[in-house]
Amino acid sequence: MAASNYYPSLSDLISLEIIPEEFENLDNGIEGLLDKLFYKNYFSSRSSDGATINTKIDIISYNEIAYDLGATGFRLLINPGSIPMVPFELSIGASVVWPVLAFIPNAQGLSNLNFEKEGLIDMIFQIAGVNYRTLFEKCLPIAFPFSGDPINELVTNYN
Q1: pLDDT in tens, 33-79
Q2: From CA 33, how far away is CA 124, in angstroms rounded?
Q3: Which residues contact 45 (CB under 8 A, 6 or more apart)?
Q4: 53 close to 45: Cβ distance less than 8 angstroms
Q5: Are 61 and 84 in contact (CB under 8 A)?
Q6: How, if at all, do strands 52-61 and 66-68 pair?
Q7: CB 104 within 8 A of CB 126
Q8: Using an 8 Å Cβ cutoff, are 16 and 27 in contact?
Q9: Is the Cβ–Cβ distance between 102 and 92 less than 8 Å?
């Protein structure tokens, strides 16, 4: 008799909260799929500077995984195994290298980054080690040549 192994469900590892809003109408289907898939040999590492992430996982299924191809009547079968209760295993590995993360202090991953216009400008300032005042003080004399302190002269001239 074969030894029985316990493998945790993918729903224990992946929270539905990380799924983008665009797929919120698929939550029930995704939750059902995550409950039927299991994993083993999960490994994830991040470099000390945070710029490189490596992940490996073995996905296990005891059921066939099928995707209906619309109204064609065809199905894409990922696990058409013929032996019952012999699990199908799919090894998945990924490596992500995003060098800009090495230059951002306290970056905890991509999910914490703000990709709005203001967020990207703040990130560039953070990488360059400057702030808005320094940039303003350096650019103001180029646009408006003054003899003394450019900020004081600008305030005096426009008041």
Answers
A1: 788 888 999 999 988 877 888 999 998 888 777 777 777 878 777 76
A2: 40
A3: 53, 54, 55
A4: yes
A5: no
A6: unpaired
A7: yes
A8: yes
A9: no
